Amino acid sequence: MREQTILFDLDDTLVHCNKYFDFVIDQFVDLMLTWYAGHGLTKADIKQKQAQIDLAGVHIHGFMPERFPKSFVETYQWFADHYHRPVSAKEVDWLMQLGHTVYTYTVEPYPLMNETLHTLQNSGHQLFLYTGGDVSIQMKKIKDVGLDQFFQDRIFVTVHKTREFMNTLMNEQRFDRGHTWMIGNSITTDVLPALHAGIHAIHIPVADDWAFNNGTIDITPKGAFYQVPSLLEVPDTIHSYIHK
């Protein structure tokens, strides 16, 4: 069997991520509904505005950790202006602290994460981790679930997980594009950059995924492109393609 180079995304591919953000957003909404009681503000209004501000921030700042807490503050300030309610420095500080709590959770691995990685590793493939975010935050997650045993020093972290960065990574690491795969849940940051770089891609959709991760496939794949329901399907999908 020809050895493959396999890059895995981290968040919501190998470990849970969105559910922690959703939990903290719900706490933010509860605070806003308390502070703006009597103004007619709804949960849907708050979530829609926060998502709009957060998505705009990603396009500018990438996955910098300050972006998410600041989306709470900017949402709060938008409604303060809209309803002519004074901005409280104490409330702003409270929201920044709340937003940062999302990075303190001990993440939970997706089912059969270890088994999937063991299968690929034991088949002789080279495993790499390619994730977006802050280095210290992402490395904490990696250590918390023991992923360093699979990836060791083959870990790439960037705040801007773009097509350009993917292509640079391919060139700098001198990966054989015909035998390289990207595995992830995001059309935006995993699948499209992979297909534009001319490598294989496997998409693992996540229910109720973050809007930023959704996208449209705008390129004809040069190699393989599969969509599978879970991590467990990844080894057989790759091996079936190799043995065609």
Provide the helix percentage: 40-55%
Q: What is the total number of structural domains?
A: 2
Portion of residues in beta strands equals: 5-15%
Radius of gyration: 20 Å
Any idea of the CATH topology of the largest domain? Answer: Rossmann fold
Head-to-tail CA distance between termini: 12 Å
Q: Major sheet: order of its strands? A: 3-2-1-4-5-6
Shape-level CATH architecture of the largest domain: 3-Layer(aba) Sandwich
Major sheet size, sense and barrel closure: 6 strands, parallel
Please identify which CATH superfamily of the largest domain we are dealing with: HAD superfamily/HAD-like
User: Regions with pLDDT < 50 over 5+ consecutive residues?
Assistant: none
Shape call: elongated
Can you give a write-up of this model?
GO terms for molecular function: phosphoglycolate phosphatase activity. This is HAD family hydrolase. It comes from Paenibacillus pectinilyticus. Keywords: Hydrolase. The protein is an alpha/beta fold. The protein has two domains: 5-15 and 107-242, Rossmann fold, CATH 3.40.50.1000; 18-104, DNA polymerase, domain 1. It is 49% helix and 11% strand. It has a six-stranded parallel β-sheet with strand order 3-2-1-4-5-6, sandwiched between helices. α9 (187-196) links the parallel β4 (180-184) and β5. The radius of gyration is 20 Å and the shape is elongated.
Write the layout of secondary structure elements.
Layout: E1 5-8, H1 18-35, H2 43-61, H3 67-83, H4 89-100, H5 113-122, E2 126-132, H6 135-144, H7 148-151, E3 155-158, H8 163-173, E4 180-184, H9 187-196, E5 200-203, E6 225-227, H10 234-242
Parallel strand pairs: 1-2, 1-4, 2-3, 4-5, 5-6
Helix pairs in contact: 2-3, 3-4, 8-9
